[in-house]
UniProtKB/TrEMBL annotation:
SUPFAM superfamilies: Acyl-CoA N-acyltransferases (Nat). Residues 13-159 form the N-acetyltransferase domain. One of its GO terms (molecular function) is acyltransferase activity, transferring groups other than amino-acyl groups. The keyword RNA-binding does not apply. Keywords: Acyltransferase, Transferase. The keyword Transferase applies. InterPro entries: Acyl_CoA_acyltransferase, DUF3335, GNAT_dom, YpeA/RimI_acetyltransf. PANTHER family: ACETYLTRANSFERASE. This is Acetyltransferase, GNAT family. Pfam families: Acetyltransf_1, DUF3335.
C-alpha cells in the first residue's frame, strides 16, 4: 500500500484504501465485471500489500461496490491505471470517476505527474468518461486484450490539471516543421512579452533561417542559442544567453568533416555578430534559482533539452519555461500532438484535418507540461559534451535587472 489510508465521504459513498479483509469483496467485483483478463485473488492480495501500487475501494453503506488499482513503476514519473471496476447495480452514481480522481490525488502524493491507461476501443462509455476527466488519446496497442481487441492509450498530466487555475496565460505555438522547435519556443516567449508578436509560419521560418546551424544529425539544422538570441534582438528584445559552450554545440552527431567545418563557420559568425550586437553571453549553465527569479520578474525563458526522457531519442529540442512552483517547472513544448493517432492507428501530422477537434484537445497536453525540479537537471543536458543552454528574454521596456546569484 503506497498511499495513506484516508477515507473520503461522498454522500453515502466512501473511498478508502483496500485492506486484506476486502479480498472476498474484490473477488466478487472482478467476477461480476469481467469475462476476461481477470485479476486473481492472489494478485489482488499482492496489490493490497505492495508498495508500488494504490488500491482504492468504493463502499456504499456496508458494501464494497467498486475499486481502482494504480501501479507505480519504479523510476517513472507516470502512474498507470491498471484496473477500474464498479458493480453493475452501483453504476450511475459517478463512482468510477470519483475513484479515478482519488487515485490521481494519491498518485500525486507519490511524486507522479502523469496517469496513463489502456481502454478497449469498443468501450465507448469508459472512453467518454476518461475524455471528460481530461484524458487524451496518444497511441494504440493492437490486439492487446485476450479477445483480440485493440487498446487505446490515454494519458493525463495530473499535476498540470491541479495547477491549471494557478498558472497565468502563456501563448502556445505548434511548430509546423520537425526542425523549427527553436523559432517556435522563441515566438512563444516573445508573444508572452509583447502581444503583437506575429504567430505564423513565415515568422517561424524567418527566425530559423537566421538561427540555424545548417546541419544536424539528420535533416535540416537545428537552432543555435546565439542565433536565436540574435533573432530576438533583431525584433527589439533584450537577451541573455547562458551556455556551457558556444562552439561545436551539435557537431558530435554529424559524421561528415565537411559538414562539421561549415557548422563551425556558422558558429563563428554567430559569435562575432553576438559581440557586435552586445548580446550578453554567460559561459556557464543557468541555475534553477536564476530561472525562477527570471520568471518571477516577468521575463521569458527558453531552454534546450534532450527529448530522451520523452521519446527515448537523444534529440535536442527547444521549449519555453512558463511557470515554477515549489515542486515543478512547467514547459510549453512546441512539438504538439507528437504520437497522436487516429482511429485507424495512423499517426496524425501537424497539418492533418482528420480528428481535428481531438487534435486541438491533445495540444493542451503540451502546454504547461510539469517537470519535477529534481528531474530538470537530467532533462536539460544534451550530447556528449553535456551542453546546457538557456535564453532569458526581456522586452525592450523591461528594466535590465540581473538574475545573477548573489
Amino acid at each position: 500500500m503506497a498511499a495513506n489510508a484516508e477515507v473520503v465521504d461522498l454522500h453515502d459513498m466512501q473511498l478508502r484504501i483496500a485492506a486484506i479483509q476486502d479480498l472476498d469483496a474484490l473477488e466478487r467485483i472482478e467476477l461480476a465485471c469481467f469475462d476476461n483478463d481477470r485479476l486473481s485473488r492472489r494478485r489482488m492480495s499482492y496489490w493490497i500489500k505492495a508498495d508500488n501500487g494504490i488500491l482504492v475501494l468504493a463502499q456504499k453503506a456496508a458494501e464494497v461496490v467498486g475499486y481502482g488499482l494504480v501501479i507505480l513503476r519504479k523510476g517513472s514519473r507516470s502512474a498507470r491505471l491498471y484496473s477500474l471496476a464498479v458493480l453493475p447495480k452501483a453504476r450511475g452514481y459517478s463512482i468510477a470517476p470519483a475513484l479515478l480522481l482519488k487515485l490521481e490525488a494519491l498518485a500525486l502524493t507519490e511524486q507522479r505527474l502523469f496517469m496513463r491507461l489502456e481502454v478497449a476501443e469498443d468501450n465507448l462509455g469508459a472512453i467518454k468518461m476518461y475524455k471528460k476527466l481530461g484524458y487524451r488519446k496518444f497511441g494504440i496497442y493492437r490486439q492487446y486484450y485476450e479477445t483480440g481487441a485493440d487498446a487505446l492509450r490515454f494519458q493525463k498530466a495530473i499535476q498540470q490539471t491541479t495547477m491549471a487555475d494557478n498558472i497565468g496565460y502563456y501563448p502556445w505555438y505548434k511548430q509546423t516543421t520537425e526542425f523549427t522547435c527553436g523559432p517556435s519556443a522563441l515566438m512563444m516567449a516573445m508573444k508572452y512579452l509583447h502581444k503583437n508578436t506575429r504567430f505564423d509560419q513565415a515568422t517561424e521560418i524567418d527566425i530559423w533561417r537566421h538561427a540555424t546551424t545548417i546541419f544536424m544529425t539528420s535533416g535540416h539544422g537545428g537552432c543555435h542559442p546565439l542565433g536565436l538570441a540574435l533573432a530576438a534582438r533583431k525584433r527589439g528584445f533584450e537577451v541573455a544567453v547562458y551556455s556551457t559552450q558556444v562552439n561545436d554545440l551539435f557537431v558530435d552527431g554529424v559524421r561528415s568533416e565537411h559538414k562539421k567545418s561549415i557548422m563551425r563557420i556558422v558558429e563563428q559568425d554567430f559569435i562575432e555578430k553576438a559581440t557586435e550586437a552586445n548580446v550578453r553571453v554567460h559561459k556557464n549553465e543557468i541555475q534553477l534559482s536564476q530561472i525562477e527569479k527570471a520568471l518571477a520578474k516577468g521575463f521569458a525563458v527558453i531552454c534546450l533539452i534532450s527529448t530522451y526522457q520523452f521519446d527515448g531519442k537523444k534529440t535536442p529540442h527547444w521549449v519555453a519555461i512558463t511557470h515554477a512552483d515549489d515542486r515543478c517547472l512547467y514547459l510549453h513544448d512546441p512539438d504538439g500532438s507528437e504520437g497522436f493517432y487516429n482511429k485507424t492507428g495512423t499517426r496524425l501530422d501537424g497539418n492533418s484535418q482528420s480528428d481535428a477537434g481531438e487534435s486541438e484537445d491533445i495540444d493542451l497536453d503540451y502546454q504547461h507540461l510539469p517537470i519535477l525540479k529534481e528531474d530538470f537537471a537530467s532533462l536539460s543536458v544534451f550530447g556528449k559534451s553535456k551542453l546546457r543552454t538557456c535564453l532569458v528574454i526581456k522586452s525592450g521596456k523591461q528594466k535590465n535587472e540581473s538574475i545573477r546569484e548573489g
